[in-house]
Please model this.
Amino acid sequence: MSDAAAAQGPQLQEWTEKITEGRFDGKNLIVTGAGSGIGRATASRIVREGGRVVGVDVSRERLDDVAAELGERFHPIVADITDEEGVAGIVDAAGATIDGLANIAGIMDRMQPTHEVDRALWDRVLGVNLTGTFLLMQAVLPRMLERGTGAIVNVASEAGLRGSAAGAAYTASKHAVVGLTKSSAFMYANSGLRINAVAPGGVATNIEGTFASELGAARVQRGMALIPSIAQASQLASSISYLLSDDGTNLNGVILPSDGGWSAA
Ligand SMILES: NC(=O)c1ccc[n+]([C@@H]2O[C@H](COP(=O)([O-])OP(=O)(O)OC[C@H]3O[C@@H](n4cnc5c(N)ncnc54)[C@H](O)[C@@H]3O)[C@@H](O)[C@H]2O)c1
Model:
């Protein structure tokens, strides 16, 4: 990158996705947040590598659009992952044999420090990012344990690794996703399961990144000044599909930063 480009802030990375033919042949996976961004890119990668994907989102319109692109190996399910009935419907649609779960659906907070967070926002962010992730894991785990195989990838964040990347609610939710991932990886390590997380840095998606706090903006923007580059959603799909696939063999309890090096700063 030239000095002039660096002065303009982080640039979108250039890269060309390369499919691994047949990597998910015969595999059946659930991907949440499949209507947009990282979830959509992950569902697309798995389907193009031979897998069947039950793609979950709250937005029917987004899912219809993805289904039109991906065809018959993509099964859209409109559901809210915070709703237990919705989660039961997702797992029913997936059937008895579930090879993988990618917990990607998530929402941002408004970059507010603790004393400015209102209860409704706290409950919503923790509800989607943490409880939704937990509910999906709890629903698929018995089926994976019965077969003695399965891979789960949760999506944490740079905000799951440090305190300077978002507001209090989002940061707490993503640190908790890291804890849930590690506890589960440890608990099921002798049961044939692999449970890992990816911690994205900046990614170009539809996620809302509003600043509703002067203090939050001033502090978080300092942390963001160290972002080396912005990734494409397909780059995150590459990291997530790697951990979901058999190429991730021997990886369990890993929190993989996929951030162009931001976490090394
Ligand atoms: N984009 C980034 O810079 C970035 C950085 C770090 C982590 N992440 C994480 O990556 C994940 C994916 O985010 P993205 O950037 O692709 O966002 P996105 O907004 O483009 O996509 C998220 C999708 O999840 C869906 N969703 C939201 N709440 C849901 C719910 N309750 N039930 C079902 N679906 C729901 C949304 O409708 C949306 O289609 C999130 O967990 C996010 O926290 C993103």
Q: What stands out?
A: The chain has one domain: 23-257. The helical segments are 3-7, 37-48, 60-70, 84-94, 119-147, 168-187, 214-224, 233-244. The two ends are 18 Å apart (CA to CA). Residues 32-33, 35-39, 56-59, 62, 80-82, 104-107, 128, 132, 155, 157, 200, 202-203, 205-207 surround nicotinamide-adenine-dinucleotide (CB under 6 Å).
